[in-house]
Write a structure and sequence with these properties.
By secondary structure, the chain is mainly beta. It has a single domain, classed as Immunoglobulin-like, CATH 2.60.40. It is built from one helix and 14 strands, in the order E-E-E-H-E-E-E-E-E-E-E-E-E-E-E. Strands 1, 2, 3, 4, 5, 6, 7, 8, 9, 10, 11, 12, 13 and 14 form a 14-stranded mixed beta sheet that branches. The chain is globular, with a radius of gyration of 16 Å. The chain starts with a strand and ends with a strand. The site of protoporphyrin IX containing FE (HEM) has 26 residues, from strand 6, strand 7, strand 8 and strand 12.
């Protein structure tokens, strides 16, 4: 997947920005995050016969202007769901290794954390999360992200913006270098949250134009 150099990433903030038509799209297959890897006993007991993580793929595109990177995601969703009063909102996340070569599949390891930027339909904002393995995620260093989102004709489309610069527990992305990116989607109307989601099995290389 390539992040195309543009003059202003802010011009791509809208999900319908015409500029996106010229940006190559990568389709990444998603699979359910395995039940046997869920550390929560309640989830294992309550959801072992519940089908989840059925979102089959996510289409991803990216542009950057040397300071800000935008990632546009599009995935099939029968209907939008913001969680209502007690439910769980639709959501999506992108992941980046903070340092080293952490396994995406375990959401990082003890000394190689993974940073996530997560969108949830309820708040229509992004939050930065960091994890050193499944079960350890905590709010992470903010990368002054923003998001726009829209549901139409059976698809969610969102555009997340973040700075290329990172921080202590936030991945730093560099123009002209290749980073790694991972994906997750939560279908809220199917009670999906936390570990109940569709995920990309492995990292996708993200070539960031010079
Ligand atoms: C086999 C793969 C995976 C499993 C079994 C799994 C499991 C879990 C579990 C049990 C939690 C809740 C405990 C915690 O907060 O650490 C969680 C949270 C989270 N996971 Fe994963 N995960 C997997 C892969 C991924 C991937 C690939 C991404 C993103 C690209 C991701 C993003 C997140 C985020 C953002 C949270 C925090 C959710 C929240 O607090 O709402 N996970 N995951």
């Amino acid at each position: 997947m390539r992040s195309i150099r543009v003059s202003a990433a802010a011009d791509y903030a809208a999900t319908t920005a015409t500029g996106w038509q010229a940006v190559p799209s990568e389709t990444v297959e998603l699979v359910p995050a395995p039940m046997e890897m869920q550390p929560n006993g309640f989830i294992q007991a309550q959801y072992s016969n519940h089908e989840y993580g059925k979102t089959p793929y996510v289409e991803a595109q990216s542009v950057h202007d040397g300071t800000t990177l935008a990632v546009r995601l599009r995935w099939p969703a029968e209907k939008p769901f913001n969680g209502g009063r007690e439910g769980f909102p639709d959501g999506a996340a992108i992941a980046f290794p903070v340092r080293g070569e952490p396994a995406l599949w375990t959401m990082g390891t003890d000394d190689e954390p993974v940073q996530f930027i997560q969108w949830r339909a309820l708040k229509n904002e992004v939050r930065s999360v960091v994890a050193w393995g499944i079960g350890s995620s905590v709010p992470g260093t903010s990368v002054s992200g923003s998001v726009t989102a829209g549901w139409s004709q059976g698809y969610w489309t969102i555009v997340m913006l973040r700075t290329l610069a990172g921080g202590a527990e936030a991945a730093t992305l560099v123009s002209g270098q290749t980073a790694q990116i991972g994906f997750a989607v939560w279908n809220g109307s199917n009670e999906e949250r936390a570990g109940l989601k569709a995920v990309s099995v492995d990292w996708t290389p993200l070539e960031i134009d010079a």
